[in-house]
Specification:
By secondary structure, the protein is of the alpha/beta class. It has helices at 39-54, 76-89, 103-112, 125-133; strands at residues 9-15, 18-23, 28-35, 60-68, 94-98, 119-122. It is built from four helices and six strands, in the order E-E-E-H-E-H-E-H-E-H. The two termini are 15 Å apart.
Length: 134
């Protein structure tokens, strides 16, 4: 089991709906989404993540949605058709997506997740982490 408190990490971005950290011990970026997500927040945060990802020498992301509340499906088309292709063009090779327990948030995540060998969904942090580092 990986304990986030015990790893070396650098905060890249911190705002009320999202934290973005580089986990140097395992060479991946950790995105932790928090609370209700509006369409505007997702697009704005997604653009910031994309800019910061381009400037980083990392190609793996652990995207943690366990703390997301409610639906955000208004941004799912933008996420799947714009954001993911741009992230792949910026060097993304592996994207582990931990889905939330909230059924409405999970449905939104399902809609936003394009079919790809680069992206895998998980319900468990340790399984997502292990897939990402192997």
């Amino acid at each position: 089991m990986v304990h986030p408190e015990s790893v070396n990490k650098t905060v890249i971005l911190s705002q009320n709906n999202l934290t973005m950290e580089y986990i140097s011990d395992f060479d991946y970026i950790y995105l932790r989404w928090i609370g209700f997500q509006s369409d505007e927040e997702i697009r704005s945060s997604g653009e910031k993540i994309l800019r910061k990802f381009r400037n980083h020498k990392c190609n793996k992301i652990l995207n943690d949605n366990r703390d997301v509340r409610g639906p955000w499906n208004t941004a799912s088309t933008w996420t799947s058709e714009y954001w993911f292709p741009h992230m792949v063009n910026a060097g993304l090779q592996k994207f582990a997506w931990i889905f939330p327990e909230n059924i409405f948030a999970e449905f939104s995540a399902q809609e936003a997740m394009p079919e790809s060998l680069t992206i895998r969904k998980f319900k468990d942090f340790d399984k997502a982490h292990n897939w990402l580092i192997n």
